[in-house]
Amino acid sequence: MNEAKNAAQPVSSGIIALVRRELRALWRDPWQLALISYIPLLGILCLWWLFSAGLPRQLPVAIVDQDHSQLSRMLTRQLKANPVTEPRSFTDLPSAVEAMQQAQVYAVVVFPYDMKKDLLTGHKPTIDVRYNSQFLLVGKLLSSQIQLSLGDGLLQVAGLKQLMTGTPKSQVAVNLSPVKSQTTALFNRNNNYIGFLVPPVLVALWQLLSMLVMANSLNRELYLNAAQSEEGISNRLTEHFWPKVLAKILLFTPILMLQGGFILAWLYLYLALPFAGSLALLLFAQLFMLLAVWSLVLFIFVLMRDSARVISFCTALFAPAFAFMGITFPTHEMPQLAQWWRLIMPSSHYIESHVSVVSYGATWSTVAQQLTSYWGFIGLLPLIYLLAIKLLPMTVKAQAEAAEYDAAPLAAKGQ
C-alpha cells in the first residue's frame, strides 16, 4: 500500500507541474487568453444581436404592375400589409430581375395585362412570382408569405364574382373555403429565428474556438527550446509528450465547458427559449463533443507537425460545421462526400442530441444511444499513438539539425 501511494505521488505531482506549466504559457500568450475569455463572449452576443429581431421583416419585393387596375393595386396593398414584405414598384420586368440579381430585392411579383378582366370573365391569368432561392430561409419565407397575401386578396375577388352570379352570401364563404386548415409549429410556435438558428450557429462557433485553443497549445510545443527545461520538465517534443497532452486537456476542458454552459444558460435560462429536456444532458453531450474535437486536433497535429498547416487544415475542416448540421438543409440530400465530411465533425453528432433534448425532451437512455456515434473518434486514439511514436522523433531530429545548421556560421565567426 505504501509503495503504491509513493508511486502515485510523483505521477500526480508531475501532472500538477505540467498544468502549472500550461497556465504560465497561457498567461504569456495574449491571443490564447483572448480565445478563452472575451472573444467567445463577444461572438455569442454579436450573433444573438444579429438574430434578435426574431423574424425577418420588411423584406423588399419588386412589383411589376402591367395591369394597372383596381385589383392589382389592392393586391399590392395586401403585400404591404404583410409585415414580412415591403413592395417596391418597377416599370418593367428586366429592371426588377436585375434588382433581384443585385440583391436589392429578394422577390419579384408580376401582375399580367388584363388580369382583372380575365378573372371576371372566367379565364385563369398567371401571376408571375419569382424569388431568390440562394437565400434559403428568406426565399422560403417570402414564397409562403407572398402566396398567403395574394391568396387572401384573390379570395375577395372570387367572393364578389359569386355574389354577382346570385350565390347567397352565406354560401360564398363555404364555396371558397370548404375546408379550413390550421398550421401550428410544434417546437417553434412563434416561428422565431433565434430558437431555430442561433443555437446551432453558437455550437459551430464554440467548436471552432475549441479547435483553435487546443491547436495553439499543441503548436507551442514545436517552438520551445529543446535544450531548456522548466521545473525539471524538458521542452523536447518527445519528452513527456502524453503527460503534456493530458495537462492541456485537464486545463482547457473545464474552461471550454464553462463557455458551452454559458451558451446554454444564455439561450434557455436568460432568453427563455422553448426547452423540453434537461440542461445536464446537454452538458454531458457537450463534453463528448469537446473530447472528440481534442482527438481530431491531436491527430492532425501529430500528422502534420507544422503550426500553419495544422491551423489551416483544422479551420478548413471545421468552418462549414453549421451547413452540415442539417438544420437548414436535409443531410440525406447532400452528396456522398459531404455526408462523409459531416461524420468527421463532432458538432454534427452533438446537434442530434441537442435537438432531441430541446424539442422532444429526450432522456438519458436516448442520449446515451446517440453518443455511441462517437466510436470513430475513440478509434483514432491508437492511430494517434502509433503516429506519435513514428513521426515525432523525426520532427525532433529535423529541429536539431536545423539548430546545428543555424549555429554553424556563428562558430565559424568565433574562430
Salient structural properties:
single chain, 415 residues, alpha/beta, four-stranded mixed β-sheet, two-stranded antiparallel ribbon, 17 helices, elongated, disordered C terminus, cell membrane
Distance between the termini: 60 Å
Radius of gyration: 31 Å
Total strands: 6
**Spatial sequence of strands, sheet with the most strands:** 2-1-3-4
Please give the count of helices: 17
Describe the model.
The protein has 415 residues and is α/β, with parallel strands linked by helices. It is built from 17 helices and six strands. The chain has helices at 2-27, 30-36, 38-50, 70-81, 93-101, 115-120, 136-164, 169-176, 193-220, 241-270, 279-304, 307-318, 336-344, 346-360, 364-371, 375-378, 380-414; strands at residues 59-65, 85-90, 107-111, 128-131, 229-230, 233-234. A four-stranded mixed beta sheet has the order 2-1-3-4, with helices on both faces. Helix 11 (279-304) runs antiparallel to helix 14 and helix 11 packs across helix 17. The protein is elongated, with a radius of gyration of 31 Å. It is found in: Cell membrane. This is ABC transporter permease. Keywords: Cell membrane, Membrane, Transmembrane, Transmembrane helix.
Write the topology of this structure:
Blueprint: H1 2-27, H2 30-36, H3 38-50, E1 59-65, H4 70-81, E2 85-90, H5 93-101, E3 107-111, H6 115-120, E4 128-131, H7 136-164, H8 169-176, H9 193-220, E5 229-230, E6 233-234, H10 241-270, H11 279-304, H12 307-318, H13 336-344, H14 346-360, H15 364-371, H16 375-378, H17 380-414
Transmembrane segments: 30-51, 193-215, 245-269, 275-303, 310-329, 374-392
Protein name: ABC transporter permease
Domain ABC-2 type transporter transmembrane: 31-381
